[in-house]
User: Fold these one by one.
Assistant:
Number 1:
Amino acid sequence: MQVYFDNSATTIVSERAAQKAYEMMTENFGNPSSLHTMGIRAEEELDKARKTAAKYLGANEREIYFLSGGTEANNLAVFGAAESRKRLGNKIVTSMIEHSSVRDACKRLEALGYEVVYLKPDKSGIISSSELEKAIDGNTILVSLMAVNNETGAVQPYERVSGIIKRKKSPALFHCDYVQAFGKIPVKTEKLGADLLSVTAHKLHGPKGVGALYVRKGTRIIPQHYGGEQEGALRPGTQAAPLIAAFGEALREIDFSAIENVKKIRDYILGFISSLDGVYVNSPDDALPYILNISAVGIKSETMLHFLAERGIYISSGSACARGKQSHVLSAMELPRERTDSALRISFSKYSTMEQAEYFCEAIKEGAQRIVRG
């Protein structure tokens, strides 16, 4: 049996999305910027995908900009917002547990002279609303807070950020990295109050290499690329029409009700591992069910990963972008080193099954018993 429980790294592309990408590459392959019939047909597919993305974001289609994925969306939001607001202040508020595409962008801005406040999570991996309240002030020009942590599944107080900014009378723009939440937690950007919101296709059964940035109407950010009028000149360059159209197909297959089955699978695994010696849960109780972070103390993450892979089970030790480095998220939570060294991230999709969960549990039990703990 093959068990793929690394869906927070990437998901399988749905058949419909893959077929749409193939169609766009072999039949409807015109450049969307071309004025002839084939160009217009390709542009129509982009328009359809944009309308679908806008629907699931509760936004206007003119507020959706396609680009290469979550990392570019986060970079554009952070750098573009900071540059556009630099006359209004110098302070950026973010957290220690953001994805590296936000965290490293903020470090770069810090090197350029901006003041960056990195809020520390509590022991469960959640940023405190009161700490956000303390940090945001009249000098704050950007607040960047993720919705769901990509390593632990901890849901952050992102729905409170806009209200805090208003209460503090801050000029800050609010950027939300919604990558791990999109397609799993419904969102209405107007109600959320986000000025900028990042999503990507490959976390919800679309292709890699395409994502989107929501930019609230009237919000000004500075482009980071130049050379064309595509995507409103905010992200110029010939659009990846096959990927964008496939993204639209994947969006049309979103099933919010799948969370119920995922929760049953997550709870089954939680119940099983609770009986295993030396296995700890690092995700909070109210985490998004799609992500479960555990530690088999005494067994290095890499050792357990190889043991499971030999049995056709694929999980990860943390963020795929970190490539096996020590988790900055678990370190920020101040977990003991023996737990961070043995951390495993198990992440599910709407295609995950209870049969796979049972097979995984037996394998993790075998690994915990057979591998020599160091």
Note: Residues 223 and 234 are 5 Å apart (CA to CA).
Number 2:
Amino acid sequence: MDYRHNNPTQDDVDPLYAYLKPLPKIELHRHLEGSLRLGTMADIAREYHLDLPGYEVEQFRNLVQMMPDDPPTADMFISKFGTLRKFYRSPEIIQRVAYEAVIDAALDNVIYLELRFTPIALGRIKRYPLTDVTDWVISAVDQAKAEAGIDVGLIISMNRHESVELGDKFVDIAIDNQDRGIVGIDLAGAENHYPGKPFERVFRKAHEAGLNVTIHAGEWAGPESVLEAIHVLGAQRLGHGVRIIEAPDVMALVRDRGIALEVCPTSNLQSGVTPALEKHPLPYLYAEGLLTTLNTDDPGVSGIDLTDEYVVAMRHFDFSLQDIKQHVLNAAQVAFLAEAARQSLADRLSAAYDLVEGTA
């Protein structure tokens, strides 16, 4: 990968990173728009003469990637996407970034990936039809899957600050493409400013069509957002969800219903959800029996890969390899796959981790 790890102790020569890198992994929460390679952005910037300080990576890195001296706030994290949106200048570019996002996951030994994308974000600058954008993403992902031997499910994500009518179009596109790898629908964005309630009918239609539902909640707003995601929108999984720690009754509800948390530790640190990795809620939620999983969120923006998140879990949360294995198996259990496929995936992963544990 050509993006830098922000933490120099977690680079490719780190023995723990090197130990964890070959392990098979699952990722359930990765945004395509936050997964662009820096080298690809440099190529695009030069070709299209984008309005940037320069076309060498170090001349624009701070605009698209969280830097060590950036304030750890949601506003700073989100600001990176303002620059990233400048790069979607052609169908070929959209296909390239989708293809590379899957290839990069495969290079990190992710064997099953759920990649979410927002068609309007990819198509807005050139006003591309949303159906065309979706076709381009699907075709690029199919190519990468075939070449890399990785299984990928696609999730269409809509934003809370955009119209319900646009969300309705996204659901229709998802329904029309269920046989082409679209496995679910997502609601993202500033939950602290925009409620999910207006999208209730949109998600009811998604459920009725057999689409899976994951909702960003409990990240930048508290437990009330999680309750809305469950009771109003029918969330099967929660994007982040870590702020349920603030309400034991909501935490119990999530645990008792078997609703999984798509936890992204580095993103949570960089966007101010947690003040320090040592204070992240994940170890407590895991110890309390919730279905927690490990994910990157936006690996290009954060300057990480999924192996880095495993390193974080072992270094800062005192997780053992058995704990990492359990998080991978949790992800297999709640993946948006048919039951037989989930079980096959879990069996494959369990055997691989047992082999590593047996030689450790």
Note: The two ends are 27 Å apart (CA to CA).
Number 3:
Amino acid sequence: MADADKLKITIIRDECIGDGACCSDAPGTFEMDDENIAILKTPVTDDRDTIIEAARNCPTEAIVVEDKETGDQLFPED
């Protein structure tokens, strides 16, 4: 799990279009539900950089990644 447990990952369901890029980029973190909307896997097994890269590749920026310790939003960048 590395440092993924230090991240707060939020998927904005209304923004997700079911592109699936996140699932391809971070298959240990994201999967599609029965409505073709991204959800988090439990446990998350991808590393921090992989998760942030998957969020960056989301075409609608439906994934928000924050650092639990600092509260900083890592993506999308403010």
Note: The chain has two helices and five strands.
Number 4:
Amino acid sequence: MQTVNKNTCKYCLDCGGCDYIDTPYSQILEIKLNNIKELYKNQPVLPGNLKDMEIVPSPTPFGYRTRCQLHIVDGKTGFYKKRSHELIEIERCEMLDERLNKRIKTLKFPSNYEGKIELYIKDGTVCERLVEKKYNNIFYQINEGINELIIDDVVSLSEPNHNDNFLELYCGLGNFTYAILKKSSDAKITGIDIKTPVIKKKNPEFIEADVLKGLQMLNGQNRLSDFNKLILDPPRNGAGKKVIDLLSRCRFEKIVYVSCNPLTLADDAQIICKQGYEWQSMKLFDMFPFTKYLEAVTLFRSVLF
């Protein structure tokens, strides 16, 4: 059984990146699943399959991260200690793709330099960029193996067909967009996010804007009623009441909601269900092995269809 401990990672006791340091991976999956069931059992609205919910393991518990940010202090690179700004200089991390570990060993900065650098793998190549601002992030999924399984599940649940007109919120760089169109090339899809692919097409159509402002624009154009299916993949703070209330102007056959935070998902689910949807199912995916975090893919169906 796979574990992370001081024998496999000499930094794990200090950096705090792995919540379950000495726990076998199979047990971690069970802990995460039981934690979600315990969290949800007293919620006003529950997924229909709560009792039989499943968690999908990461295909690669180690070496799964294809993206990381490293702090630079006095020219040295590493992670901060848990609840501290004290740097732990690292040579490698057991959770990182080996290509990133090799790049870390070559990083060199002047002894008086401080900042942050992001390493990520794009199209098989290790890329890097200095992070100039606190929230100046480029979002890429960090676990390619589990991300592919999530994409498959989202496509399966949404059941794309040639008559569909999808609205995709927090679409990013098209993680689900192109998979939906690959399944049904005649389906239409409009994605909204602060950062989107730089293309100008009628399909897919990308609106580069804050999601709430993008929805307000579509509403002003009387387009919200055109969409029959919704894909949601918000950040950790969820979609929120303002966004979901504006979506009440639509009547979707299906809403597929991808969440990285079970607490905000529970809040959003209550609002969605009050608008006439049934929370049919929820499946967990271990996007972040050896940590307390995970992803969930949920399905809401309109009670009117």
Note: Helices lie at 12-15, 25-40, 98-104, 144-158, 177-183, 211-220, 241-247, 262-274.
